[in-house]
Every structure is written in C-alpha cells, then in structure tokens.
Amino acid sequence: MPAPSSETFMLDPGLRRECEEAIRAGSKSFLAASMLLPGSTRSAARALYAFCRAADDLIDESADPAEGLFEIRARLDAIYRGTPGSHPADRAFVAVVEHYAMPRALPAALIEGFEWDVENRTYRSCDELCSYAARVASSVGVMMTLIMGVCDRAVLARAADLGLAMQLTNIARDVGEDARRGRIYLPLNWLDEAGVDPQAFVSDPKACPAMRATVERLLDAAHILYARAMTGIAGLPLSCRTAIRSAALIYREIGREIEIAGHDSITARAHTSTRRKLELIARAAATPFLFQPVSTEPAHQEVRFLVEAAAAGRINAPSGLDAKAGRMIELMTLSETRRRAVEAEA
C-alpha cells in the first residue's frame, strides 16, 4: 500500500453532508466530539464513522445477517480495489483508505467483530471479551489515530485501550437491553463466580446483587483502561486533543451514571444529558496541555495485532506545523518543570 498522502484530506461536499447526517442519526456523542476536530481530520473521521455505521446497519437490517456480512465484505473488497459502489459511505471511505494508506486489517477486524455478533458468541473470560471489543471498538480507535497523523506504537496502544474501555462501558450499560434481546456479553466465568445462571438471567433479567457486582467488576476493568488510555492523548496533535479527551470523558461518564444507579443497568439504561456532555467538553477544553509522558505499557494482548498492522511500514514521526508546535510547547514545558525542580533543590 502506498504511503499516506501529504496533501490535506478533501471530501466532496455532497459526501461530506451524507457522512454528517449518518453521524447525526447514529451518535450524538461522536457528533459532539467530532466538532472539536480540525476540518480535514473531522471530515475523515466522519467518513470513517459513516462506513462503520453503514456496515453495522446493513447486517442488523438484513433478513439474513449472513448475507449482510457477505455484502459488506464484498464492498470492502471493492473499496480496497479503488472501485467502490454507489453507496455514499463507501465512496467517502475509499477516500480515507487512499489518503491515509489505511491497512485493510483494521476495517476487516471490525467486520469480523460483526460476524461474532451474528454468530451470537459468548465470552468465557474477560480476555475473550476484550478480543471482541478489540474488533468492534479498538479497530476504530486505531484508525482514528492514523487519521490524526500518528503511528507511534505507544500512542496506538493507548488508542486501542480507549476502544476497549469504551466497549466495556457499552456492555455494562446495555446488560438489561441485551438480555431482553437474548444476548449476554458479560464474561461467563465471572457469572459463574457470582452464582448467576446466564440462561436464567436472559429469561428473566433482574438487578440482583450478584449481577450488580458483576457490572461493577466490568466497570472497574474499564476504569483501569481509561486511566492508561488518557496518557495517549499527549501523543496526539494539539488540535485533536480536546476532541479525544471529550469523547473519553463523555463515555467514562456513562460508567459514573451506572455507579450512581447502584450498578443497575438492567431496569434502566444509563445516559448522559446534553447539558452534562457540554460540561465535560468544557472541562476537556480547559484542561492544560502540560507535558505528560505517554504510557509505554505494552498493548493489551488482544489488541496487539491492530497496533502492529497500523504501525507496520509507517514512519513514527509527526508532521505538519501543528505537530511541530506541539512538540516545541511540550519541550518548553518539560524544560520549565526541570528548572523549577533544580531551584527547589538548591
């Protein structure tokens, strides 16, 4: 695959409007966060979202989900041949693929996650659940990081962590809703340890103490991932940091709402109000961008294939005026921190 283009990403105005409508209909949280991205990055991010949304909808709305999977794989084949069909989402996504040299393994992983949903898979352990989350969420986070012009392995690993955290939060929020659809995503060994019979719970979902404790355990796992993921924001261009920090804070707030409800996500579905989202966006914008090292902890074992696919053959150096300015500010901040430390010791 050719190297990413150094030109500014441009999308046909009509396609840009189609992508905006897709995100407006599908995710108010993503829409709010994407508004904070710089223009070309915002257009590419929305094109990515539009394709992901179209793929998900195609499978969900097909009379035979297996046929939906077959069609979306065929559409991905056409995109990577550079011959997308007439679907606006495909025509927008092919521009992203070509401009950013997007490795096929990333969107292919997303579709594999959709396939696991069609198969109605269950997950024995938290690691198995993270393997699923890697495909349906971390894959998108890694693609977003490449769109922002970053291919450093440590930053990619933290983006994958954020995807895992967000998906675990989604699962914790949707326990009751999923059960009423005959689905359960919580790790089966956790349910065994809590004394919960999965089939009995799906048949009659109730917010019993054991299920509340299991939801809490899942959110605890997500909190660890959020903490590590947030360090990766320091590795992004300055112009993108507020948007990503906002998205992380908004998703993490869903977990807080579940906690306030006593970890009952069975009788009610947690949500974050528009007012609260705006407060979190303001907090993200007001957070000083001081020097903070990106955690170099190895990527979670279930997302390493995504990190390696994204990093393979790419140059780990930021480019453009914004990235250079960001490095200079961070170096100046680090220098000032060290100077004060020396003065304090004197």
Automatic annotation (TrEMBL):
CDD domains: Trans_IPPS_HH (cd00683). InterPro entries: Isoprenoid_synthase_dom_sf, Squ/phyt_synthse, Squalene/phytoene_synthase_CS, Trans_IPPS_bact-type, Trans_IPPS_HH. Pfam families: SQS_PSY (PF00494). The keyword ATP-binding does not apply. Gene3D superfamilies: Farnesyl Diphosphate Synthase. Keywords: Transferase. It comes from the Bacteria. This is Squalene/phytoene synthase family protein. It comes from Hoeflea alexandrii. The lineage of its organism: Bacteria, Pseudomonadati, Pseudomonadota, Alphaproteobacteria, Hyphomicrobiales.
